[in-house]
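Thanks for the sequence, V.! I ran LuxR family transcriptional regulator right away. Repeating your input here for the record:
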Amino acid sequence: MKSNYTRTIHFLCEDKSLRHPLVEQIERQMGIEIPYLEPAELMLALQRNKHRILMIDHHSYSQLHSQVRNLPLANKVFETIIINVARRLTTDEILSFGHLKGLFYEQDTIEDIAKGCCEIINGENWLPRKIMAQLLYHYRTVVESQSTPATVNLTTREIHILRSLMTGASNSQIAEEQFISEFTVKSHLYQIFKKLCVKNRVQATAWAKQHLLS
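Predicted structure:
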């Protein structure tokens, strides 16, 4: 029974018959085995052991995520460690990793990765400061948007502009889509911010994502 409560790291990959050089280095440095797990085995892993931490190579994340779409990695049962990250990630990308416990860049040393993984096994988080700052900013925005009443008297035009904000459109792009001037867009945005009790586009977008249907 004890093994059911032991936190272990498993490497999620497309083909577990292929060894991953970086994972092998992490195993040697930590002095533990990191079993390989394929997407098809993920549901079985969910049933058998609810304390597995999934390690994922960021280079293969998109392909893996498409294979486990019916079992989202956002499932809180699975904690995740992302390795081999080559660039700065957007907040949406970070959130897609689900219960993210650790993130390591390509330039991180094996010693630092192994140390971080040991801390994660012991229940700690190991995230870069920039990632923590992004998440903190996101959740602050969510909290602020939740304090806004869901029932707001928005015009049809304002709703269309909010939907454009959700896609990341600029003022000029919104003006082109709505066949209005940029000055008019700014005027509409001012009214939207006022009605939603928000201060900027990010907060307005967060409100729209929560309250407007796609």
